[in-house]
Specification:
The protein is mainly alpha-helical. Helix content is about 70%, strand content about 5%. The radius of gyration is 19 Å and the shape is globular.
Length: about 250
């Protein structure tokens, strides 16, 4: 990747453009933790570094970190080797949000548009290092047994596609989209049969990227999203029937 290519950090931790700066700093960091983009126990950049990256004051960053601590997302250590660290077991996903089939399909079309274009560009631009990083995320999905860990790996892959595509706008759009999309897939990743299908999807996508085949990469990720929609709807129907049977 060229020196001018955007990274996940530069796309996510860019200058703020809102009046509520403390809330925006807290939201961005909380979203990145919930999606697993900042790993459990990972140390955050220093207050000074975050302030420089976000173009806000150190006081604003300090207040945002206090909010994250109150929510159980980070812990802070004092003294040598200290700093702010992601909690070992942070509340990564909000409770599953139910949406109507129409809303779900509309969201999926948005997801397919962003992820499909990202995959097309990533297949053209992926370096060996990019492919190695994506391979690590696919392997993390395969090794995961908890649904939340699978969600994080799957979301990380979709976000990283946009990063590899070297498009800050696609990366920001995908980051924002995952906040809404990822919780909806929790029931999919909790089902072992569906998780097996997801693993096959991700392997096919990785193969398309490695073979530098843009049309296949786009088709693969769009098929993955469409299959997730089918499984989400199936899971919702099953949950509804179970609830009715228990009444």
């Amino acid at each position: 990747m060229s020196a001018s290519a955007p990274t996940l950090t530069s796309a996510f931790l860019g200058p703020l453009r809102t009046d509520s700066r403390r809330s925006e700093v807290e939201r961005r960091l909380a979203d990145s933790i919930r999606l697993g983009l900042i790993a459990e126990r990972e140390q955050l950049p220093s207050e000074e570094t975050l302030a420089q990256q976000l173009e806000v004051s150190v006081v604003t960053v300090r207040e945002a970190l206090a909010g994250l601590r109150a929510r159980g997302l980070i812990t802070t250590r004092r003294g040598r080797g200290g700093g702010s660290f992601v909690s070992p077991d942070p509340p990564l996903l909000q409770a599953e949000v139910r949406v109507s089939p129409t809303e779900l399909r509309d969201l999926a079309e948005h997801q397919a548009a962003i992820a499909g274009r990202s995959a097309w560009l990533a297949a053209q631009k992926a370096s060996p290092r990019d492919l190695e990083r994506l391979r690590g995320l696919v392997d993390a999905y395969t090794a995961a047994t908890a649904a939340s860990a699978r969600v994080r790996a799957d979301s990380g892959i979709l976000v990283d596609l946009a990063t590899v595509a070297q498009s800050p706008r696609l990366t920001r759009a995908q980051l924002t989209l995952q906040i809404e999309w990822a919780p909806l897939t929790l029931m999919v990743h909790a089902d072992e049969h569906a998780a097996g299908r997801v693993r096959a999807d991700l392997e096919d996508l990785l193969g398309a990227l490695g073979d530098a085949e843009p049309p296949r990469a786009r088709q693969s990720v769009e098929a993955h999203i469409a299959a997730n929609v089918t499984d989400i709807l199936r899971a919702h129907v099953a949950a509804l029937r179970g609830g009715l049977a228990g009444q």
